[in-house]
Amino acid sequence: ASAIGIEEERRKTGEILEHRIKFEEIITTISANFIKIEPENIDKEISRALETIGRFVGVDRSYIFLINEQGTKASNAYEWCAEGIEPLKGQLQNMPVDRVPWFTEKLKRLEAVHIPRLEDFPKEAAAEREFIEAQGVKSIVLVPMTYGKAPIGLIGFDSVRNEQNWSEDNISLLKTIGEIFTNSLEHKKAEEAIGSGERFLNSIFNSIQDGISILDKDLNIISVNPTMEKWYE
Hints:
The protein is an alpha+beta fold.
């Protein structure tokens, strides 16, 4: 019996190791995809990555919540659901963070939340348990997404059909995924800000009533505003 027990333990250890290796391979592939992606394709790639991870770890729903700049509200920005699982994204927009104070405090401390069973919620998280139970969720993992040591949101995984326990290894790998998503979203935000600034400057350039031309270093005209164009007609 002892030998059988040892063999069973070895088998389980091998399965855990194999799972981790496959998970790391998935993360490496996802990371490589984001390195070369154009900003306009980031949303699509995040959705694809949430599905890939969700299917691999066997959850029913994976998602990202982003917090507004004031830190007062959170919205479900991205969501993947397994077949037969109700999407919640449309219901969870501009949600006051003080509605779930225990979650919010954990997020501010950059701590992951791991609830394998609803009974594992502490007493001070009664609001969170009620919120999660109303969604039919049996197990949940929330991992903070941080930028500059400050939380900008979270990546979450729900198990609706079965309870699920997550290892520290898996949660650590989810943090890596969160970092990849965070860097991509911040890159997208920066690109959008640059584009917005360029559009603003262009609108000014085009609306000024005086004739304006832009020259290169060799004094060749490379651009003129509409008023200047009329002068050349």
